[in-house]
Amino acid sequence: MKEFELINRYFKGRGITRRDVDLGIGDDCALVSVPENYQLAITTDTLVSGVHFFEDIPPRALGHRVLAVNLSDLAAMGAEPTWISLALTLPSVDLDWLEAFTEGLHEIAEYYNVQIIGGDTTQGPLSITVSAKGIVPRGKALTRAGAKAGDWIFVTGPLGDAGLAIEARKRGIAITPDNRHEVEKRFFYPTPRVAAGQVLRGLATSAIDISDGLVADLGHILRKSQVNAVVQVEKVPMSAALKNTLVEGERWPFVLNYGDDYELLFTVSDANKGALENKLKQYGVEAKCIGQIQAGNGQLDLTLKGQKFTLPKGGYEHFSD
Ligand SMILES: [Mg+2]
């Protein structure tokens, strides 16, 4: 297992150094300082080869993605990402693979000013677990529980691209090289909406990141908030690449049911709607209003051009078969 000790050199002494890390990699624990009047936000995600990603995913993309999905959860709570720890299970030590993987990881960590403060490496089937930590002013975190009747429902960007990338590989959907490149970029290198999440703080009434699909994730807000919602599906944003590839009837399962795009879904009161849209625009985020919250106890109604819309049965399951 000596080889595995080598792996440390890919993490220790690399990446950014934050002043709030009192003790980083190299002891039994890391020590960090949480500022006064802030709360610590913690989230953990595991990606397993063949379940959450294809075995031939570029390792650099995997390094990016495993951190991006965790940062997306922090963004959904309005937290500012600060530190991560990492557990890596590898079938063997492949130095080229490790170099590319850690490059992808360090790149996104540096971009968001996140320090890797600890980790563990073991031998076994390829699997990666990241636990990301962030800080949020006390009492200001966004949850799934605050949506109220009359609030507007927004998403921060187009949905369905990551799903199309996966299904195009699995089922051989006809897609041009340009469009394939566009949607694969969204799957391999998702952008966590970190700045948008912090903008939402104090303005949005609830938020979640779309990891399991719009319908499933909006369902979480409706149940936690004890409200109903109506979504006008024609208002849900989709990319040109998706529209170019699929006819209208084929699009809905991707746009409504598939996850993996990591856009934020949030609700905002009528009074704060304009202010929030403008503030998001300053950060380059064109949030789109897709529906409205109503009184109720967790039911979602979809409409298409004013008619009741029923989701096609047998939609795609989230990645795994
Ligand atoms: Mg989430």
Word description of this protein:
With 321 residues, the chain is α+β, with helices and mostly antiparallel strands. It folds into two domains: 3-137, 2-Layer Sandwich (60s Ribosomal Protein L30, Chain: A), CATH 3.30.1330.10; 152-309, Phosphoribosyl-aminoimidazole Synthetase, Chain A, domain 2 (Alpha-Beta Complex), CATH 3.90.650. Helices cover 35% and strands 26% of the residues. The strands form three sheets. A seven-stranded mixed beta sheet has the order 8-10-7-11-9-12-13, sandwiched between helices. Strands 3-6-4-5 form a four-stranded mixed beta sheet, covered by helices on one side. Strands 1-2 form a two-stranded antiparallel sheet. The radius of gyration is 20 Å and the shape is globular. The site of magnesium ion (MG) has 5 residues, from helix 2 and strand 8.
In short:
With 321 residues, this protein is α+β, with helices and mostly antiparallel strands.
Keywords:
321 residues, 7-stranded mixed beta sheet, 10 helices, 35% helix, Phosphoribosyl-aminoimidazole Synthetase, Chain A, domain 2, globular, alpha+beta, 4-stranded mixed beta sheet, 2 domains, binds magnesium ion, 60s Ribosomal Protein L30, Chain: A, disordered C terminus, 13 strands
